[in-house]
Structure formats: C-alpha cells, structure tokens
C-alpha cells in the first residue's frame, strides 16, 4: 500500500478524539509530502538535526513534534518552532525549555515522559515523581505541561502492554485538568491497545511510512 493509503486506513481506525502523530524519522521529504497531501499536518521526529532541516524545507503549516530523547544543549535549535515536546524526563530540561521559550517569546507545550515499561532502558520520570514535577515547574511561565507520554515494553505479551498503558492512564487521570489533556501512548505495534486504555495521541511511524533501515 502507498503511504497515502496506509494513512487513510489508520485514520479510519482512530476515534475522532485521538490525534495522529505521523512519525517520519529517517524518511525523506517526499514521503512526508505524500502524507501532507492526504491532509496530515502533525509529524514527529526524534533527532534535533533532522527535525530542524525538515522544518526548514517543508511547508510551514506542519506542526512538528519532538518525540525522542532531547538533550539540553539542543533545545535552542527547536525552541523557535516546535509544537510539542513529548519526551521531557528531567527538571533541568524543563528549565532549559522555559528559558529558550522566553528568548523566543513563546510558550512551549511539553509532555512529561513517564517510565512505565518493566525494561529499565527507557527514559522517564517515576510514577510517584509526576506531581512533584508539576509542583516544581508551576512557576515556569513559558512552558505548559499539557500531559504525559509513555512507551510500553517491547514485547509480544499484550497483557503486559495493556497493564503498562493502564498504569499511565491512572496517573494521567489523577492529574488531568483543563490544561492537562494529552496522553501520548501507542506506536505502530500497540496503538490499538493504547487507545483501548485511553490514549489521546498516538505516534505511528512504520505502519504509515514502512520499515526503517
Ligand atoms: C520511532 C518512534 C515511534 C514510532 O515507532 P513505530 O513503531 O515506527 O510506529 C513512536 N514513538 C517514539 C518515541 C519513537 O521514537
């Protein structure tokens, strides 16, 4: 199937309340433009350099999401334009995002990444830390923490994935308010499970653009 066909097929399976982030990392601009022609405007990248380059080259009404691990010294490159930063996993990073947002005279939306997977390789705050982080950043004027992001363990055990998503949804429910409305969970392999567990934003790459090298 073409990229356009894959995109249409996935969108037809998503509830209207769920935002699709098309994860275009490693893929060429031509692929992104094919999805763009089909109406897709939200794209996710995980490398700052690639994100900046694509932002410069592609239509200006694309909303770019930074979904990967973000290093503090690279925040300045994406601060002028980034729509949402998904993987925020430490306070110093939030502080830096706030500072760069001030310099760009804008507010930057962020999601706190929460560690839900059993495997210990994934980044993120512990479930218990979330309310402390919200408190610690309440004075930061130029960031908005609009929700949470999480990644399940890479496994075939659907029950485990379900339980991990459910744990994130529980934390989300406990902090949800008028500003905290986004729950980013679910990728190509597990987005139907994530939606069942209450995801409001899925990050789908290979199921749209095909496998990456
Ligand atoms: C690459 C990536 C995705 C998309 O992965 P697919 O399995 O290709 O859908 C989603 N989220 C993050 C954080 C990623 O790095």
Describe the structure.
The protein is an alpha/beta fold and 213 residues long. The protein contains nine helices and eight strands. Strands 7-6-5-4-3-2-1-8 form an eight-stranded parallel β-sheet. α4 links the parallel β3 and β4 (84-88). The two termini are 18 Å apart. The model has no long low-confidence stretch (mean pLDDT 96). Pyridoxal-5'-phosphate (PLP) is lined by residues 23, 25, 46, 67-68, 187-189, 203-207.
From the spread of the alpha carbons, the general shape counts as globular
Order of helices and strands: HEHEHEHEHEHEHEHEH
Number of separate helices: 9
CATH homologous superfamily descriptor = Alanine racemase
CATH architecture: Alpha-Beta Barrel
Return the CATH topology.
Answer: TIM Barrel
Give keywords.
8 strands, TIM Barrel, binds pyridoxal-5'-phosphate, globular, 213 residues, single chain, alpha/beta, eight-stranded parallel β-sheet
Please outline what is shown here:
Helices cover 38% and strands 19% of the residues. It has 213 residues and is an alpha/beta fold.
Question: What is the topological layout?
Answer:
Elements: H1 3-13, E1 19-23, H2 29-37, E2 42-45, H3 48-57, E3 63-66, H4 75-78, E4 84-88, H5 91-103, E5 108-114, H6 130-136, E6 143-150, H7 158-175, E7 182-184, H8 191-196, E8 201-204, H9 206-209
Parallel strand pairs: 1-2, 1-8, 2-3, 3-4, 4-5, 5-6, 6-7
The site of pyridoxal-5'-phosphate (PLP) has 13 residues, from strand 8 and helix 9.
């Amino acid at each position: 199937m073409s990229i356009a066909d894959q995109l249409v097929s996935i969108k037809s399976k998503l509830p209207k309340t769920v935002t699709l982030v098309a994860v275009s990392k490693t893929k060429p601009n031509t692929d992104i433009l094919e999805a763009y022609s089909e109406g897709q405007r939200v794209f996710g990248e995980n490398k700052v350099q690639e994100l900046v380059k694509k932002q410069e080259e592609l239509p200006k009404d694309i909303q770019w999401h930074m979904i990967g691990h973000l290093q503090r010294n690279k925040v300045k490159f994406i601060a002028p334009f980034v729509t949402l930063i998904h993987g925020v996993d430490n306070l110093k990073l939030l502080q830096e995002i706030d500072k760069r947002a001030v310099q760009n005279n804008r507010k930057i939306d962020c999601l706190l990444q929460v560690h839900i997977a059993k495997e210990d390789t994934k980044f993120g705050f512990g479930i218990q830390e979330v309310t402390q982080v919200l408190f610690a950043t309440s004075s930061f004027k130029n960031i908005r923490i609009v929700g949470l992001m999480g990644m399940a363990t890479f496994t075939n055990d659907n029950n485990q994935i379900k339980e991990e998503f459910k744990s994130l949804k529980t934390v989300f429910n406990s902090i949800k308010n008028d500003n905290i409305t986004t729950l980013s969970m679910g990728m190509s392999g597990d987005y139907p499970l994530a939606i069942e567990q209450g995801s409001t934003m899925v990050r789908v790459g290979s199921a749209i653009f095909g496998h990456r090298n």
